[in-house]
Amino acid sequence: QVQMMESGGGSVQAGGSLRLSCVVSGNMDNGYCMGWFRQAPGKEREGVAAIDRDSSTSFADSVKGRFTISKDSAKNTLYLQMNSLKPEDAAMYYCAADRRWSWLGCTVGGSPPTEDLEVWGQGTLVTVSS
């Protein structure tokens, strides 16, 4: 089973950009759908973006056109490029992976129950000041 560890969070002004990275130990191409979730204080965890084995992607409506998800299999790394950040993007961001999620189509909102996803990272904090 793979393990995941995020980095790249930080503090940025509204309109700025950040790139989150998630290093995957193990074979990231072994049937996993991978994605990014976020959770702000007092709010439920929400899916942000997902990428399947064939690199097809899915995004939450709130980030479409601003965020990009990608992966580099040679580096075993998943990325989330976040542009035009808004204060409402501030949250703890987590990467996750699950093989059932791929069978389900690997879409944001189409994952198995998030508490049951196979692999989670520990999270990286993003703050956005207005």
Short note summarizing the structure:
With 130 residues, the protein is mostly beta strands. Helices cover 4% and strands 47% of the residues.
Topology diagram in text:
Blueprint: E1 3-7, E2 10-13, E3 18-25, E4 33-39, E5 46-51, E6 57-59, E7 67-72, E8 77-82, E9 91-98, H1 99-103, E10 119-120, E11 124-129
Parallel strand pairs: 2-11
Antiparallel strand pairs: 1-3, 3-8, 4-5, 4-9, 5-6, 7-8, 9-10, 9-11
Keywords summarizing the entry:
single chain; 47% strand; mainly beta; four-stranded antiparallel beta sheet; 130 residues; seven-stranded mixed beta sheet
Describe the structure.
The chain contains one helix and eleven strands. The protein has one helix at 99-103; strands spanning 3-7, 10-13, 18-25, 33-39, 46-51, 57-59, 67-72, 77-82, 91-98, 119-120, 124-129. Strands 2, 4, 5, 6, 9, 10 and 11 form a seven-stranded mixed β-sheet that branches. Strands 1-3-8-7 form a four-stranded antiparallel β-sheet, with no helix packed on it.
User: Which bin fits the share of residues in helices?
Assistant: under 10%
| Overall average residue pLDDT | 96
- Structural class, please? mainly beta
Radius of gyration: 13 Å
Oligomer: single chain
Strand fraction band?
over 45%
Shape: globular
- Give the uncertain stretches in residue-range form: none
- In total, the number of strands is 11
Q: What profile does the largest beta sheet have?
A: 7 strands, mixed
Can you write the helix and strand succession as a string? EEEEEEEEEHEE
